[in-house]
């Protein structure tokens, strides 16, 4: 076997190293192509392909994806660039970039497979994924099908049966058998066509031997978790004492403690997830982190809108503790209005020192410590989220109260710096390579100094984040694969036009001051309560004109369509996000219900920042299985997975990766790979080369991850042992070659 073919399919090993062959297919974003005539050089072929592609691109655009597949246009002689990956950032020669890495050869994609039919290849890939596809193909190519064929010979006997008379049983059987032949063939074709349209098709088709085995491992782990964790958890009692089995795709907050015992969550944590593109900066660490830091502050005070007293003697006696909205505030000596939250006459959000509050909290009567109670006030619980009368608006009400509670825990200098440092560490711990964070900028949200006597303005906040990030990157240089963070300038959608205009102006100023750190612009807050995007269209267009004049790029990255409603301003935001050329959209839950906007966004390569757990908890779907992401993926819309406000949802990005995997039975390793790759492709990297570099490093991590899955969960399998031995040998040789 050739040294360079290690880790690839045995029967397609290439006799010599070719950079174009060994570049990973999904990085190239091209479909496999048949062998070209040997007389033409690679450069000549490439020039021909570009010319032909230009000629036929308008024709291909007019065809639907299935049509392209069936006419061979997609997989014909031209290297058709996949629509979903075809953005400016992506038209870079990653093949060349990648081929410079010695390890490129270990997991190189097989582009030399001259499959006679792309559809056959798709079905084969589907079978390797262990998917339902495979089962369906097997069912209809089984010996039982050949029985239909044998019976078909008796059909001729039916030819003489008069019209309107009942068919003899053997004639009917013969006719059924004859039609079953056609039916079987059509069904196989349907399965193959659908498999070829799958969002993870490219990853499946170009999988290495190691990835195929690792995918089987991941699908097996899903099943093992069902038995070892969910079945073991026993039955849950529902309405009228009905019993319900626990299962992986059930309510996230119902399962969240069980997930810690699952292999799939462990695998999700270890997976290199690429970029995290939708994360609100005030709610991304565990709530206890901020509470513990607040306890250390001399000038940290707590307030409430209700006195914390017990009412009556029945079950509702603790209702004030549930209904109250707690807030925190760093307060100067001059501004302090002393009060005691446990006094029945307490009112007007008077200040109680936080440490004193912790001392006086009625731990015995509440059955929990003060910190535990405060933590419970910050995060969504199972009961309040899934209780039958709960609504999306009700969940948002709780969400907004929690956001206000977080605000005071977060907006002072010491904690902001510490929080940034911990957040960056958290990215590394969760195997996230890069993030675009969404801090909320407004004049009332400025940072206090630690004694509450002065404030840092928005520029001061950006400087603080950048300073912490630079220090962190320096401290971790060469240790981990990390591209740092960028800032998406966000301001509330509830603001009037002049304030949004001021925010847009400040965003331009920040971009000019820190071009490497400003990723884009967005409006935040509950969409149905704020103003629609179309209210700010003149300001947005003026912003675009000004950016063009100044020669700077600040893409819109709008939240939009985070709703179940149709015909409202909220799903109407999708229209404006499209027309304003939003580079990505946040949530886009309503997008599958707007077929024209969906197709247009797909054509413009707009990526959807999907937030599975957030959408479930805020009432858009009762369980992950009903999430809009699967409709988007079924239509091959580029998506990324995100945590949104993990603090409040008891989640991390790994939890969201877990959810999206268990919500679709046949989704495995290739789904995760495509989602992670899309996250980097649709990031706001400063240059094409920066993105290419990040993607090459991501791929190296991905290879390590595949090896980890195999060594951790499949080491006994002789086939795995063979593949791992080949990879190890390949790496030894590559390391030796790099020293020459
Ligand atoms: Zn959001």
From TrEMBL:
Residues 142-154 have a biased composition (Polar residues). PANTHER family: ADENOSINE DEAMINASE (PTHR11409), ADENOSINE DEAMINASE DOMAIN-CONTAINING PROTEIN (PTHR11409:SF37). The keyword Glycoprotein does not apply. Its cofactor is Zn(2+). It comes from Sporothrix bragantina. Residues 1-94, 142-163 are annotated as: Disordered. Residues 24-45 have a biased composition (Low complexity). InterPro entries: A_deaminase_dom, Ado/ade_deaminase, Metal_Hydrolase. Keywords: Hydrolase, Metal-binding. This is Adenosine deaminase domain-containing protein. Residues 396-685 form the Adenosine deaminase domain.
């Amino acid at each position: 076997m050739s040294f360079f073919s290690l880790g690839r399919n045995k029967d397609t090993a290439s006799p010599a190293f070719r950079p174009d062959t060994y570049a990973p297919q999904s990085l190239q974003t091209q479909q496999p192509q048949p062998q070209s005539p040997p007389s033409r050089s690679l450069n000549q072929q490439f020039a021909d392909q570009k010319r032909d592609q230009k000629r036929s691109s308008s024709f291909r655009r007019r065809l639907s994806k299935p049509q392209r597949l069936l006419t061979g246009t997609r997989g014909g002689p031209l290297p058709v660039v996949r629509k979903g990956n075809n953005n400016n950032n992506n038209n870079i020669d990653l093949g060349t970039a990648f081929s410079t890495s010695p390890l490129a050869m270990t997991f190189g994609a097989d582009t030399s497979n001259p499959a006679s039919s792309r559809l056959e290849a798709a079905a084969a890939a589907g079978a390797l994924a262990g998917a339902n596809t495979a089962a369906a193909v097997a069912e209809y190519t089984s010996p039982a099908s050949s029985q239909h064929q044998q019976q078909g010979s008796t059909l001729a006997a039916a030819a003489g049966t008069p019209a309107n008379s009942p068919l003899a049983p053997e004639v009917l059987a013969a006719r059924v058998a004859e039609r079953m032949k056609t039916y079987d063939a059509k069904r196989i074709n349907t399965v193959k066509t659908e498999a070829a349209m799958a969002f993870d098709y490219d990853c499946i088709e170009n999988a290495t031997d190691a990835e195929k085995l690792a995918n089987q491992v991941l699908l097996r782990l899903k099943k093992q978790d069902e038995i070892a964790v969910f079945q073991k958890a026993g039955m849950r009692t529902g309405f009228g004492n009905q019993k319900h089995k626990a299962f992986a795709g059930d309510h996230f907050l119902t399962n969240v403690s069980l997930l810690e015992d699952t292999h799939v969550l462990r695998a999700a944590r270890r997976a290199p997830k690429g970029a995290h593109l939708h994360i609100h900066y005030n709610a991304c660490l565990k709530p206890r982190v901020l509470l513990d830091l607040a306890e250390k502050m001399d000038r940290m005070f707590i307030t409430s809108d209700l006195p914390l007293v017990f009412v009556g003697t029945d079950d509702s006696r603790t209702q004030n503790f549930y209904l109250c909205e707690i807030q925190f505030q760093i307060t100067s000596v001059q501004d302090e209005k002393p009060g005691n939250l446990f006094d029945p006459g307490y009112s007007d959000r008077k200040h109680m020192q936080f440490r004193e509050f912790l001392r006086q909290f009625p731990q015995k009567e509440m059955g929990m410590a003060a910190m535990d109670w405060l933590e419970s006030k910050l995060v969504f619980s199972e009961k309040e989220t899934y209780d039958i009368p709960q609504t999306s608006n009700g969940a948002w009400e709780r969400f907004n109260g929690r956001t206000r509670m977080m605000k005071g825990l977060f907006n002072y200098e010491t904690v902001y710096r510490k929080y940034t440092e911990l957040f960056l560490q958290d990215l590394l711990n969760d195997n996230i390579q890069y993030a675009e964070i969404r801090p909320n900028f407004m004049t009332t949200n400025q940072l206090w100094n630690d004694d509450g006597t002065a404030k840092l303005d928005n520029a001061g906040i950006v400087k603080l984040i950048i300073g912490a990030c630079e220090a962190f990157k320096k401290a971790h240089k060469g240790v981990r694969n990390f591209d740092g963070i960028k800032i998406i300038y966000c301001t509330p959608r509830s603001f009037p036009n002049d304030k949004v205009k001021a925010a847009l102006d400040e965003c331009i100023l920040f971009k000019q001051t820190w071009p490497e750190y400003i990723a884009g612009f967005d409006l935040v807050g509950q969409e149905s309560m704020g103003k629609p995007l179309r209210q700010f269209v003149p300001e947005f267009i003026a912003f675009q004109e000004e950016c063009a004049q100044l020669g700077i790029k600040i893409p819109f990255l709008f939240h939009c369509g985070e709703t179940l409603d149709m015909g409202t301003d909220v799903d109407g935001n999708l229209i404006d996000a499209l027309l304003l050329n939003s580079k990505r959209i946040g949530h886009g839950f309503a997008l599958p219900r707007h077929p024209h906007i969906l197709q247009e966004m797909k054509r413009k390569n707009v990526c959807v920042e999907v937030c599975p757990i957030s959408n479930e908890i805020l009432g858009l779907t009762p369980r992950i299985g009903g999430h809009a992401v699967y409709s988007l993926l079924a239509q091959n819309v580029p998506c990324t997975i995100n945590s949104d406000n993990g603090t409040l949802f008891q989640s991390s990005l790994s939890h969201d990766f877990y959810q999206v995997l268990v919500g679709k039975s046949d989704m495995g390793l290739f789904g995760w790979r495509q989602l992670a790759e899309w996250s980097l492709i649709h990031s706001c990297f400063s240059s094409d080369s920066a993105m290419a570099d990040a993607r090459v490093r991501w791929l190296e991590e991905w290879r390590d991850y595949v090896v980890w899955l195999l060594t951790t969960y499949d080491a006994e399998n002789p086939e795995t042992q063979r593949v791992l031995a080949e990879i190890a040998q390949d790496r030894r040789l590559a390391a030796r070659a790099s020293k020459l």
